Amino acid sequence: MARTWEEKSGGVTAPQGFLAAGVAAGVKYKGRRDIALIFSEVPARAAGVFTTNLVKGAPVLVTMERISRGRARAVVVNSGNANTCNGEQGIRDARAMAQETARVLNIPEEDVLVASTGVIGQPMPMDRILPGIAAAARELSSGGGAAAAEAIMTTDTEPKETALSITLSGHTVTIGGMAKGSGMIHPSMATMLCFITTDAAVSAPCLQEMLRHAVDRSFNMISVDGDTSTNDMVLVLANGRAGNPEITAENEDYHLLRDALTEVCTRLARAVARDGEGATKLLEVKVINAASEKDARLAARAVVASNLVKAAIYGQDANWGRIICAAGYSGAHFDPDRVDIYLGDIMVARDGVALPFDEEAASSMLAGREVRVLVDLKSGEYEATAWGCDLTGEYVNINASYRT
């Protein structure tokens, strides 16, 4: 089945019936946008996936509870403070953010989802956050997606947003998304946050299934530094404004929408990996001909997460031994004596043994902004792709003083 989509602008406000805003409330820095608000003009279906870290931020706990209802109308987000490890006060603060959002939007409090990102273990400056939420509500607009994407950034160097449209049963359906993430990126669900909107009509159970599928093939296939955050979450709201027949079971429209959602998540996941703290290169690792999808995913993710591989990529060192080593400890099943490895178009190993290759050409390839590695396990017919980045001294500099 052909998968086609049309590029759109506007991020989370590209779909019909969604408004957004991003304002500066001084949560951590003066004059920097740090409160984001997304609002659906009509009730929406909702789905989410969350960090599997045993330690979870208060907003994660509150939102996990509310998402089980399968509906929501607003998402309020602050950057600069994670609201994690703040005890019962953290829960009260997360609920207070939802209460204020509900008040200024005149909607039920249970229809508000909450997210936070930033420093762990710091009290929330509610005297600045609550007025910031009211200010964001006043700024809500159909052109506010870019400001919202900026407001959720922490150490990100640029906002991350995308949007596309597809046709479902003769109706144009749009999906938009924004994400933040630069460090503490090794999702396992899925600090990393992502918020997606769509005007598709789809049941909450189907939306949850689609999101899980999309996240497993995108955000759960990236790694910057091997740290799984306490606040990771991906949320999606679907308000049905497109007018397509509601998707309630697997059919052609179900698969079209799921694939488009996966594409949006993949674009944002790549953007997160590319913007890793201190990174100079995007690393893409594709594992092919694995015995199972699980084996392909395990091997690909292990290679992008390897600090030795990441350091070699930064140093433009074609050290393919680190690649096969990472695949070997990944838990994937394969015969090491059959593995072929390519750096870009350059084959550096065949059947697990080194090949003569042009070191200068390989180093030149590794100097690019995007580095592609192909690992052929020659064990089956499954494949998977993972994304990461190089490891630089700047990563240490950023994280040596992140709290202060």
Automatic annotation (TrEMBL):
Species of provenance: Desulfofundulus luciae
Pathway assigned in UniProt: Amino-acid biosynthesis; L-arginine biosynthesis; N(2)-acetyl-L-ornithine from L-glutamate: step 1/4; Amino-acid biosynthesis; L-arginine biosynthesis; L-ornithine and N-acetyl-L-glutamate from L-glutamate and N(2)-acetyl-L-ornithine (cyclic): step 1/1
Keywords tagged on the record: Acyltransferase, Amino-acid biosynthesis, Arginine biosynthesis, Autocatalytic cleavage, Cytoplasm, Multifunctional enzyme, Transferase
Listed name of the protein: Arginine biosynthesis bifunctional protein ArgJ
Lineage, uppermost ranks: Bacteria, Bacillati, Bacillota, Clostridia, Eubacteriales
Binding site for substrate: 154, 180, 191, 277, 399, 404
UniProt family annotation: Belongs to the ArgJ family.
Catalytic activity: L-glutamate + acetyl-CoA = N-acetyl-L-glutamate + CoA + H(+); N(2)-acetyl-L-ornithine + L-glutamate = N-acetyl-L-glutamate + L-ornithine
SUPFAM superfamilies per record: DmpA/ArgJ-like (SSF56266)
EC class (word): transferase
PANTHER family: ARGININE BIOSYNTHESIS BIFUNCTIONAL PROTEIN ARGJ, ARGININE BIOSYNTHESIS BIFUNCTIONAL PROTEIN ARGJ, MITOCHONDRIAL
Site (Cleavage): 190-191
Keyword Transport listed: no
EC number in record: 2.3.1.35, 2.3.1.1
Active-site residues, as the UniProt record annotates them: 191 (nucleophile)
Quaternary structure, from the entry: Heterotetramer of two alpha and two beta chains.
